# Entry
Amino acid sequence: MLNNEAIEFFLQTLQASLSDQTFVRLTLSRPATKMTDLKNIYARIVHIKSGPVLSFTLRYATKDVTQNHSFVEGAGLIGLWLGHDFLNGDLYTTQGDFFIQYNKKRQPRLYTKAPSHTDAPQTAHDLAKKRPLETASDKRYLHDMGITGADGRVLPSGQKKFRQINKYIEIIDAQLQQTSLSPGAHVVDMGSGKGYLTFALYDYLTHTLGLDVHVTGIEIRPELVAFCRELARNNDFRQLQFIAQNIEDFQPTRIDVLIALHACDTATDLAIAKGIKAGAQLIIVAPCCHKQIRKQMQRHEAMQPILRHGILEERQAELLTDGMRALILEAEGYKTKVFEFVSTEHTNKNLMITALKHKPNPDAPAQLANIKQQFGIAYHYLERLLEN
# Structure
């Protein structure tokens, strides 16, 4: 298909889907220039008092802006943005999925595949907030994991785990909204354990969002890997796999999203390093203990009366370890957030570090060096891993 034919077909398909009510959603991603804070644009149909409109969410680095336009105006804007401001366009309809991608010479290529969605989504302006796994009755894997009973209802003993899974997916989904996964994206969960999150995330990404993704769980315990593989087969999760391997030995050819929850001590650094080296668009980690920095950390004389209490010294080590991780990620070209979330496993409270592919922070290396000097820290393990 020639260049003009590709974009004309894409826009005609968009207009037709809006007219015959087969439109599901559209995403514009991959900004044409790095000099903009506008990361992507998400479009869906909503109904307001005057009737249906195409509602755009413009996602900037620090804020989201919503704009409503008529179908004609909206389609016109998409035609202006594609190939000029954004190099990727993903259109989902109930008739098929359509992807247009521009190369560096601004030449478009069109890809199509069978529809990911068979029904058009709700179009109410204010949709009721639902948990990602609100409906558990049709999810066999939750029953096999002991979260739901034979009737599909969440068991009293599974309530905490069910809430935890939903919370994690909400966090991951919020981060994914700031980027756009290309078809065939690879999501890796390092330290997947029994696969609670891994299965739920695969289910959410493929069946709720309709994304074409491959998900891999890395777990060192072979008995858990065998359990998860059998569960994946029983649920016909064809693009979900599990590998029995150390994080250190895992050699991926591609990672788009890297997740490592409750990876103890330097296992978190091993996972982060794998993600950075693979050029992951998104890295999400939740470390649960910190030893490497604590062994090196020297007390300031003024802090001696405080840090003689072991629990306070431990918390300072956690602060330094995770703060330095964030700075290293920023130096490597990621925009980071560090926040506390409530966990029902390992510890009552925990920190989560999220890192989204961005331009490097030029001040991060000097800031990192200053912190190491102040606290007598020779090196952070993540630094050593990135040197190799």
Residues 4 and 108 are 8 Å apart (CA to CA). The chain has twelve helices and 14 strands. The radius of gyration is 23 Å.
